[in-house]
Design a protein that fits this description.
Number of helices: 12
Helix content: 40-55%
Radius of gyration: 34 Å
Protein name: DUF6754 domain-containing protein
Organism: candidate division WOR-3 bacterium
Number of domains: 3
Strand content: 15-25%
CATH architecture of the largest domain: 3-Layer(aba) Sandwich
Pfam families: DUF6754
Shape: elongated
Distance between the termini: 63 Å
InterPro entries: DUF6754 (IPR046642), Ig-like_fold (IPR013783)
Keywords: Membrane, Transmembrane, Transmembrane helix
């Protein structure tokens, strides 16, 4: 009799259970936690849910590991829910717990775990606004020299002295690709200088839509230089949409026209070295630029100047000296410096095991 009573008391052991709205989420979720005694041998945990204490509850999940937390996903926001947890060893009930207070799911407007991102965003915005205002006052806001862009005037001038055209290759990108848009900004500068020196610009295109954009860009460059009469629309044309057909066609143009300057600006693939080596063989001064990491080594090895990665994106600001563009470039440079410092500090803190939970979470975001 005493043994039966002891077994009953052991089976009826209470468990401390809590249910609450899952923090930092978009709603529709309640987190349930409970405690397990170290002496219990747990084979399964059953979790029940109901919206009314007087109504029967429903089994929503069975866990087959000694977990202490469960996230109930799919509940309705602003509705009360009650939970019950049954802990078993085999078919024997070890412990039972029920919530006495309702748990209500709500949406959170702000995820506090992303606070570090908000701080970085505010710092970046401050840098951005400061440098934009400063650039409006001082058009000569310092941006480090980019050798490839500085050499554009030299390349166009050299080609003019030799009495040869300038060949501008925009790669295999489409108008929706950022490198292609950046290439158009550089093309405008080349067209402007070519108009000043009365030189021809040849632009064979891989995509018809890019061809139309290139025609308008070159035309605008000639108009701004005051020489719209020198603009030749026939020099900007569609070649082919086949990768190596395009490479072969451009190589043929190089061998026939013998341009004095070749500019390869855009997104390139395996044809990059073929084009650059052909340009080198005819003795042209070559300025390349791409964001394709796999093609950069070939351009660096075979062309005179290379715009590496983001230098292409900075070209518009560098050449136009527009206040908004200059301020954006300077702001980005400074926020990159801040991020590098944060990463270094976070690495040191992790290495030496210092810092509290909030700081560790701040650095882990990055």
């Amino acid at each position: 009799m005493k043994l039966a009573m002891l077994l009953f008391l052991w089976q009826a052991s209470p468990v401390n259970i809590k249910a609450y709205d899952t923090p930092n989420d978009a709603g529709g979720s309640i987190t349930i936690t409970w405690e397990l005694d170290s002496s219990w041998v747990v084979s399964r945990i059953e979790i029940y849910r109901t919206q009314d204490l007087n109504a029967p509850d429903t089994l929503i999940e069975t866990l087959f590991k000694p977990e202490t937390q469960f996230q109930d996903i799919g509940v309705m926001d602003k509705k009360p829910y009650y939970y019950r947890v049954l802990i078993y060893h085999g078919d024997t009930l070890v412990a039972e717990g029920r919530t006495t207070e309702p748990a209500i799911s709500t949406q959170q407007w702000f995820n506090s775990r992303r606070l570090s991102v908000l701080i970085i965003l505010l710092i970046y915005t401050a840098f951005l606004l400061y440098f934009i205002m400063r650039a409006r006052v001082d058009k000569n806001l310092f941006i480090r020299k980019i050798a490839g862009l500085e050499a554009i005037d030299e390349a166009v001038g050299r080609s003019t002295e030799m009495g040869r055209p300038i060949l501008y290759i925009m790669g295999l990108g489409y108008i929706s690709d950022i490198p292609t848009v950046a290439s158009l900004a550089i093309l405008k500068r080349v067209a402007y200088k070519a108009a000043e020196y009365e030189a021809d610009v040849i632009v064979p295109c891989y995509d018809p839509i890019v061809m139309v954009a290139a025609q308008e860009t070159v035309k605008e460059g000639y108009i701004e230089a005051g020489r719209p009469d020198l603009y030749k629309e026939s020099n900007i044309y569609f070649l082919t949409s086949d990768q190596f057909g395009y490479a072969a066609g451009v190589d043929g143009i190089m061998m026939r026209q013998r341009p004095g300057a070749v500019l390869l600006q855009g997104y390139f693939y395996a044809e990059s070295l073929i084009l650059a080596e052909t340009g080198h063989s005819i003795g042209a001064i070559q300025i390349s630029g791409t964001t394709a990491v796999t093609q950069l080594p070939f351009f660096i090895a075979s062309t005179d100047y290379t715009l590496i990665g983001e230098e292409m994106y900075a070209a518009s600001a560098y050449l136009s000296r527009d206040a908004l563009s200059l301020g954006t470039i300077k702001g980005e440079d400074y926020i990159k410096m801040v991020l590098v410092i944060i990463i270094l500090i976070g690495s040191l803190m992790e290495t030496f095991g210092i810092g509290n939970h909030m700081l560790i979470n701040f650095f882990n975001i990055f």
